Amino acid sequence: MILDIVTYPDPRLKQVSQSVGVITDEIRELAANMLETMYAAPGVGLAAPQVGKNIRMLVMDESAQEEKKHPRVLVNPVLTFLGEEVVSEQEGCLSVPMNYRADVVRKSMVHLNALNIDGSVIDEDLEGFGAIIVQHEYDHLDGILFIDKISRLRRSLYDSKVKKWLRRKNAV
Length: 172
Ligand code: ZN
Description:
The chain is α+β, with helices and mostly antiparallel strands. Helix content is 29%, strand content 28%. The chain has a five-stranded antiparallel β-sheet with strand order 1-2-3-4-5. It is globular, with a radius of gyration of 16 Å. Bound molecules: zinc ion.
């Protein structure tokens, strides 16, 4: 089932999400729906708060645009930031309207601890595009959007565009 994606400035995107206690059938169904929603969007990652569930779970697939898919579900992820600072060019987000994109400084490598949807332990290093995606989605679990990481000037320009866009949208 494709879920509705919560968009900025919805206050639910600013909440710090709660850890998942037990991986229930409901959680497994949510993960499957999140993957379906991510592929349909289309996107390469989606965090639970983006579909209105403030729990620490995210899905991602760095090969989402390719024929062979590699879906991943991360429950209660914990990142350790490693590597050097890199510029994630023209980052975007399914929850940030108007297909807005900007460069964001991230780390080239992270160490990831998490649970799989089957409860097995994930303990690995991620580099490259995978590392960028997981940092972006992980931020969502702490109520942070990539537009929180751009300059104040860019942010205020974007906010005024969004306000105009919302006014137009609500007038229809
Ligand atoms: Zn996002």
